[in-house]
Amino acid sequence: MIKTLASSSIITMALSVVFTATLLAQTPKLNDAEVASVAVTANQIDINYATVAKAKSKNVDILKFAETMSNDHKAVIAQAVALVTKLKVTPKDNAVSKKLMADAEVTKKLCFQNQEKHLIRPI
Q1: How many CA atoms, within 13 angstroms, populate the side-chain half-sphere of residue 72?
Q2: Which DSSP symbol is given to 117?
Q3: Could you read off the pLDDT of 91-108 as tens digits, one per residue?
C-alpha cells in the first residue's frame, strides 16, 4: 500500500514538473509581476499537496516529508513576498499561474478518483 501511494506520488510530482516545464517553454516572456505570481502559485500548490498528505497519512516518513515540504515552500513564498515588497512589484495573475492552478485541480481530482477506486488508499 505504501509503495503504491509513494509510486503514485512520485509519478504525479514528475508529471507536474514535466507539464510545468512544457508550459513554461511555450509561454511568452513573463514580466516580474507575473513571475512573482507563478512563484507563489507553484509553491502554494505544493503546500496544498503537503496538507493533503498530512491529513491522509499515518506513515511517519510521509508526515515528516510533508511537514518539510510545507515549511520549505512557505519559506520560498516568504522570500518571494520580501522580494516583491522590496522591488515594489505586485504579483499579477497570468496564463502560467492559471494553468498551474488548473493542472493542480486536475491532479487533485485524479488522486481522489483513484483513491475512491481503491487504487490509492490512505495510509
Answers
A1: 10
A2: T
A3: 999 999 999 999 998 888
